[in-house]
Each structure stands twice: as C-alpha cells, then as structure tokens.
Amino acid sequence: MASHLQRRGRGVVVAAAVALAVAAAVAASRIQHVSADAVSLSMTFIDLLRAGELDKAYELTVMSDDVGRDLKGFADKVRREGVEGGAHRGG
C-alpha cells in the first residue's frame, strides 16, 4: 500500500513539474526581445524630431511612401501628424 502511495505521489510531482515547465515555456514565448541598438536608434529618431532636425531624422527612415518619398514629403507628414518639436499631439 505504501508503495502505491509513493508511486502516486511521484506521479503528482512529475505532473506538477511538467505543468510548470509548460507554463514557463508559454510565458517565455510571449516575451518580446528588443535589441538595445533598436531602442537607441528609435530614441535618436524621436530626439531629432523633437529638435526639429528633420533632415537627420529622415536619413534614419526607409525613405518610402510610408514616411515620405523625399525630405519635403517627410516634413509635411511630420507636421500633419503633429510630432515635430515635442510629443505627439495627435488624437
């Protein structure tokens, strides 16, 4: 009888360990890693916008229709979206 209880106890421990491992794996898979370089580049871009240095900020973009095909298009979009010279003021 004691042997049966010991096996059952070990089974519960193993099941709990497996459940914990699965929960840890799920949690780890949901954590997103952002490189320090990407964060630094983003902060530089924002600082340049706030300082009104649109030419330097534009150089950090992909220079496509999404941000403006040229510096004028980029500057127009920045002004239209209200992000130049301070925090985003859009709603």
Helix-strand makeup class:
mainly alpha
Strand elements, count: 0
- Alpha plus pi helix count: 4
Taking all Cα atoms into account, the compactness measure Rg is 26 Å
Strand content of the residues, in percent? under 5%
Model regions low in confidence, pLDDT < 50 over at least 5 residues: 87-91
**Mean pLDDT figure:** 81
Give the overall shape, derived from the CA principal axes.
rod-shaped
- Sheet with the most strands, sense and barrel status: none
Distance between the termini: 70 Å
Residue share in helix? 55-70%
Topology order in helix (H) and strand (E) letters: HHHH
Number of domains: 2
In terms of quaternary structure, the protein is: single chain
Mind explaining what this structure looks like?
With 91 residues, the chain is mainly alpha-helical. It has two domains: 1-31; 36-81, no CATH class. The chain has four helices and no strands. It is rod-shaped and about 80 Å long.
